[in-house]
Design brief:
The protein has a seven-stranded parallel β-sheet with strand order 3-2-1-4-5-6-7, sandwiched between helices. Helix 1 links the parallel strand 1 and strand 2. It is globular and about 60 Å long. The chain has one domain: Rossmann fold, CATH 3.40.50.720. It contains nine helices and seven strands, in the order βαβαβαβαβαβαβααα. By secondary structure, it is of the alpha/beta class.
Length: about 300
Amino acid sequence: MDYRGKVVVITGASSGIGRDAAVAFAKRGAIVVGVARRESLLQELAGECRRHAPDASYLAGDLGERGFAERVVHDTAARHGRLDVLINNAGLPMHKQIYDVTPEDMDLQMRVNFMACVWTTLAAIPYMLRQGEGYVINVSSMAAKVAPPRETPYTAAKAAMDGFTAGLWSDLAGSNIHVSLVVPGPIDTEIWAKDDSPSAYSGPKYPPKIVTDALFEVIEKKVHERVVPRFSAQLVSAHLLRFFAPSLLLRGMAWMEPVAPDVVAKARARAAASTGRGGGGAAGGSASGGTGGGAG
């Protein structure tokens, strides 16, 4: 594909996968619009992209807010007259005991990790229909297929993204709008440092570039779904265990990151203390609040 002059919106572009992809598209001559919350990082990104594509720009805001997510698409189309590629990459991690998860936590995870991609995609479809072609790539996570310990809200939100994407494969047939799902395994980005508590994962982490390469592949070959890294024994075995030996997979998860007895005991004590007082907060009456902000 000749990317010169193509308009590409990339969410979660301030770091990690999004930043790497933005620079790679700009080097191919695409007009990149980077989207995230951290404006100073977006300014640096736009400066680097403009060395290759002078019309590169950015939009700073919280993709967990519907108004901003939709404005990203409308403002881009108004400025450039088209939108060729939408990459929904923004993501917000959460590693937390389920006893401490609040409804607010769950709502935030769903808004940033799932609804943001719904809002941008539904806003983009009319523009892509009018120009006769378009590409939507949703960047999910292997966590949506094999749920890691303490990541239930994140897993649920990414699994919703997977289902939404799969539905679009059939619903957009004949429209010449191609939708892809890219499913990264453990990628070496700052997302690991943003968890509420440290993850027990200690295996290999792969560079963001392998995800960027997958983005180009699913566009150019019109692939519907790609797991990255594609031939990882670790990811393949985990996926197979999920379907053919789930009890063995759960034992492995429990060995990797067990739930300490005192965690359950404390949660049970909070639950007992909240009886008759209407409960409140997370399971067991935890007073912990939601994590603030959106992604990127």
